[in-house]
Amino acid sequence: MNLISFKDLTGQQLREIIDEAVEVKHNAEKYRTALDSESLAMIFQKSSTRTRVSFEVAMTQLGGHALYIDWRTTNFAIASVHDETQYLSRNVDCIMARLKKNADLQVMAKASRVPVINGCDEKYHPTQAIADLMTMKEKKGALKEVKLVYMGIHNNVCNSLIEGCTKTGVKITAVTPIFNEPSRDEELLENARKTGLYETTLDVKQAVEDADFVYTDTWVDMEFFLDPKYALEKEKRVKLMMPYQVNRELLKESDAYIMHDMPIHRGYEISQDIIESPKSVIYEQSENRLYSAKAILLKLLEKF
Ligand code: CP
């Protein structure tokens, strides 16, 4: 079993992973040797703080071992993904990869003898969405009928939230005036629409009115954030997106929890003053990356 997106997971399987994440959070000692002698290869073609740290610490705390592999320092950079994965999957028990292209991840998943986890590509970020759903469940006690508003650019994080929410009974409203074309997955959106749990609007006030959670993410993908060639597009996006900033004015009549997958760009997608407000669960959400990483590894390595 791989975790590339939630396409091949049933709602029940997804709920089981979320419940396992809560269970390991409160019973860490019970799982100290669960992955004894097992190794996870973590391959990064892009930068990361949370995905790298959470999976590496998860492996240590489960009694296993994680190898951090920078794509540029390996022969993945000069050989075929298929061949390098054929080798890699003969020496480790699981692979987690953050690649630029989902197409390369699909090649990796096909070539691998061991489970492959998507650590975020241009289309999906499933490990983040599991931590998000776990955080929502902790706050509300259940996921069914909970209402999440995603405010920002339609991107990989948005796709995985839509897929994860609609599979677990969460109503999701996307307020996304810009669509990151590389993230487009019409099949995912069509399946989500069929559930009746996914809608879109550009009416920000109405969207947040009865929201339980308001979620935002960067307006510029990580690989372009500091790229001078992207400066003009960044400026255009900031101008267009400013009315969609998550801030105190927007939420003045709302009791919603505030979510962000981090890294945060203060003063852009979210205002400085609400990041640490009493309704913000952003840092708890990021902490939950660790427990959800453990649950994902335990599931894919068939420990529950
Ligand atoms: N949210 C997230 O994936 O964080 P990193 O990019 O730091 O891994």
Please explain how this structure is put together.
It is a single chain. The chain is α/β, with parallel strands linked by helices. The chain has 2 domains: 126 residues, Rossmann fold; 159 residues, Rossmann fold, CATH 3.40.50. 39% of the residues lie in helices and 16% in strands. It contains 10 helices and 9 strands. The strands form 2 sheets. It has a 5-stranded parallel β-sheet with strand order 7-6-5-8-9. The chain has a 4-stranded parallel β-sheet with strand order 2-1-3-4, with helices on both faces. α2 links the parallel β1 and β2. α1 crosses α5. The structure holds phosphoric acid mono(formamide)ester. The site of phosphoric acid mono(formamide)ester (CP) has 9 residues, from α2.
Question: Can you tag this structure with a few keywords?
Answer:
Rossmann fold; four-stranded parallel sheet; 304 residues; 10 helices; alpha/beta; binds phosphoric acid mono(formamide)ester; globular; single chain
Would you summarize the structure shown here?
With 304 residues, this protein is an alpha/beta fold.
Topology:
Blueprint: H1 11-26, E1 39-44, H2 50-61, E2 65-70, H3 81-88, E3 94-98, H4 102-111, E4 116-118, H5 126-140, E5 147-154, H6 156-168, E6 171-179, H7 186-195, E7 198-200, H8 204-208, E8 213-216, H9 231-241, E9 257-260, H10 282-300
Helix pairs in contact: 1-5, 1-6, 1-10, 2-10, 3-4, 5-6, 5-10, 6-7
The protein binds phosphoric acid mono(formamide)ester.
The site of phosphoric acid mono(formamide)ester has 9 residues, from α2.
